[in-house]
């Protein structure tokens, strides 16, 4: 039986996001969800860094421009927040590129903007 990389960590972060969505619903700007999720992660004692700058390398050379992750949870999971009608392959590609550029293995794409329910995707590099 295959094990899922960082399954417990992803489950915990998604649970916190579900609680934020349950409380706020859809319709706010991304910044509102980011602040609320930070509060929820802290309340659940989930280790995180908000607006975390991450170094990007190009052909083994460090670039001057950093990527700013919405959250890094457990020092291992990039969490990218959105407040869109729906997620598309464009947002998925963005997170995949962040994973490649930073050498992180697991990313979460969380969308608070869809009507009715929280939309999320777990991506693995």
Can you put this structure into words, describing what you see?
The chain is an alpha+beta fold. α3 links the parallel β5 and β6 (106-111). It has helices at residues 7-24, 30-43, 89-102; strands at residues 48-54, 57-58, 61-62, 67-73, 77-82, 106-111, 119-124. The strands form 2 sheets. The chain has a 5-stranded mixed β-sheet, sandwiched between helices. Helices cover 37% and strands 29% of the residues. The protein contains 3 helices and 7 strands; from the N terminus they run ααβββββαββ. It has a single domain, classed as Lambda Exonuclease, Chain A (Alpha-Beta Complex).
Give keywords.
two-stranded antiparallel ribbon; 3 helices; 29% strand; 125 residues; 7 strands; globular; Lambda Exonuclease, Chain A; alpha+beta
Indicate the topology.
Blueprint: H1 7-24, H2 30-43, E1 48-54, E2 57-58, E3 61-62, E4 67-73, E5 77-82, H3 89-102, E6 106-111, E7 119-124
Parallel strand pairs: 5-6
Antiparallel strand pairs: 1-4, 2-3, 4-5, 6-7
Kindly summarize this structure in a few lines.
By secondary structure, the protein is of the alpha+beta class.
Stated plainly, the CATH topology is called: Lambda Exonuclease, Chain A
The CATH C-level name is: Alpha Beta
Assigned CATH architecture:
Alpha-Beta Complex
Give a count of the beta strands, DSSP E runs of length 2 or more. Answer: 7
What structural category arises from helix and sheet content? alpha+beta
Mean pLDDT, all residues: 93
Strand content: 25-35%
Rg over CA atoms, rounded to whole Å, is 14 Å
Percent range of helical residues: 25-40%
Strand order across the largest sheet: 1-4-5-6-7
Provide a count of the helices: 3
From N to C, what is the helix and strand string? HHEEEEEHEE
Major sheet characteristics: 5 strands, mixed
| Low-confidence sequence ranges | none
* Distance between the first and last residues' Cα: 20 Å
What best-fitting shape do the alpha-carbon axes yield? globular
The tally of domains stands at 1
């Amino acid at each position: 039986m295959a094990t899922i990389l960082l399954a417990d960590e992803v489950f915990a972060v998604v649970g916190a996001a579900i609680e934020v969505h349950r409380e706020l619903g859809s319709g706010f700007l991304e910044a509102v969800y980011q602040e609320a999720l930070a509060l929820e992660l802290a309340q659940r004692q989930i280790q995180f860094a908000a607006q975390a700058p991450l170094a990007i390398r190009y052909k083994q050379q460090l670039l001057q421009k950093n990527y700013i992750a919405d959250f890094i949870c457990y020092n291992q999971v990039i969490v990218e927040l959105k407040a869109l009608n729906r997620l598309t392959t464009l947002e998925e590609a963005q997170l995949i590129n962040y994973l490649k550029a930073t050498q992180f293995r697991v990313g979460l794409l969380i969308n608070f903007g869809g009507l009715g329910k929280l939309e999320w995707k777990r991506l693995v590099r």
